[in-house]
Amino acid sequence: MEIIYYLALGAFAGILAGLLGVGGGTVIVPVLTFIFAAQHFPPEYVLHFALGTSMASILFTSLASLRSHHRRGAVNWAVVRQITPGIVIGTLVGVWLTSMMSTRLLKMIFIAFAYFVAVQMLMNIKPKPSRQLPAGPGMLASGGAIGIFSSFVGIGGGTLSVPFMTWCNMPLHTVIGTSAALGFPIAFTGAIGFIANGLHVSGLPANSLGFVYLPALAGIAIASVVTAPIGANMAHALPVSRLKKIFALMLIVVGSKMLASLF
């Protein structure tokens, strides 16, 4: 039964990845948290497994999504090259910090983050017309911040990079495609970090590789690779205002589900 859940979760995450330029972690993490808790994973490591498995699955989802967006010329590779070094450094730092945090604290960070971005999108707060992407050091710092917080909440960075690039007046369809490309270095670095941090922990479930649960990874990856191109096609067919509302409502739903699990 869990495999069916993983496949369904992967299919939904793949559509979100293509549609919104996210890795799907905003949905994968809370759902895996509930599934792993029901499977009686060690309570102190439930969210660590959800974060690690989410990062590993985004490797596959982001590749499928970015290929579809690249074909449409919607990936700004110059931005990808400028921001990736900071993202890699930030993700490594974030994974290291995450290994020392409790599950409850990680949930609280995830909830606050989800609500903040949702409100920003729904209020349609617009940047100054003159605002542009920062220069080299600014891009490095921005990438570092995106990497750190992506590790905290197990995402491919889209829920941070999309608002950041939108705030810098990049066209939204290009933002979504570029964000999909940025998900790969975040996911690769994060997955390696969660695997390494979990290897020395005893008493973990069978079929685990560090803090990555391989059956969940397989189900999510297979389904998301199939559905990510569908989401990418939808992204280029929908108007910008509707994309923003879909993004914001998704964050409110997953944040609320995570909030309810605290009580």
Automatic annotation (TrEMBL):
Topology relative to the membrane: Multi-pass membrane protein
Transmembrane segments: 7-39, 45-66, 78-99, 105-123, 135-155, 175-199, 211-231, 243-260
Keyword terms, alphabetized: Cell membrane, Membrane, Transmembrane, Transmembrane helix
Localization of this protein: Cell membrane; Membrane
Major subcellular site: membrane
Top-rank taxon: Bacteria
Entry-linked InterPro entries: TM_pro_TauE-like
Record flagged with keyword Hydrolase: no
Cellular component terms (Gene Ontology): plasma membrane
The family this protein is said to belong to: Belongs to the 4-toluene sulfonate uptake permease (TSUP) (TC 2.A.102) family.
Name of the protein in question: Probable membrane transporter protein
